[in-house]
Specification:
N-terminal domain of MutM-like DNA repair proteins, alpha+beta, elongated, DNA-binding, four-stranded antiparallel sheet, single chain
Amino acid sequence: MPELPEAETIVRGLRPHVEGRRIVSAEFYARRVSSDAPQEWAGRQVIAVRRQGKQVLLCLDSGASILIKLGMTGALLWNGQFGPYTRARLEFEGGGVLLFDDIRQFGSLRLVEEAGGKLGPDPFEITAEDFAARLRRRNTQVKRALLDQSLVRGLGNIYTDEALFRAQIHPRARTRRLRIDRARRLHGEIVKLLEEAIALRGSSISDYVDAQGERGTFQTRHQVYGKAGQPCPRCGTPITRIVVAQRGTHYCPRCQRI
DNA sequence: TGCCATGTTAATGC
DNA sequence: TGCATTAACATGGC
């Protein structure tokens, strides 16, 4: 669920509470949530809260960072209610508790020495030119390429479908055959889409909530995601659902031609 | 009941 | 090397 706009909303909500604070203790309640020893986190000060694609980083005074992957259903709740899906709990000096709730347990927390890994550039930090070049270097379906975090980081199933609709590109279009102006335009649409989604605090499709437990509202602006059978907002043709890269994919067969 | 779901990674084969 | 496919993870909703 959480993609870039949701992670950004969580980070913004967490920052004023967590930055500059020291971790007093950490506890894990599920084997899968972390393989770290929680006492190794204790005593560390969080100097910055950052987003990395769709992940959240708590940057520590030691130089290392706690990398938080939200998976499908992860939530970070500031002073939230401890519940059956609470998988981790961080207590901060001076009061305040950060809970990591995660129904499906695809999320995780782990200490990393270096950020980045195999992630590609953030869509906000890459030029249209560079984006187009990276995209056209691949030889695959454009939807698959956008979901690949090593091309650009932060897009998931929802925003990929929405961005391709806005750019009027078929999700199965081959990256190598995309004209350069179309690839540049796709980057522009991605940036605008993500900015709009952040302004509305993300999309709450099922259970995404921000650090205060509040839902986002960008789902009310979705044009194709989850809209199979409904008329295309541009031309009225029914939105079609197909499977691309093993993911449900929504597009307008008239506006988005190969 | 069976299938589907916003994510990621590993294994395997071409 | 790059790309495609499948499985796996754990749980809730329809």
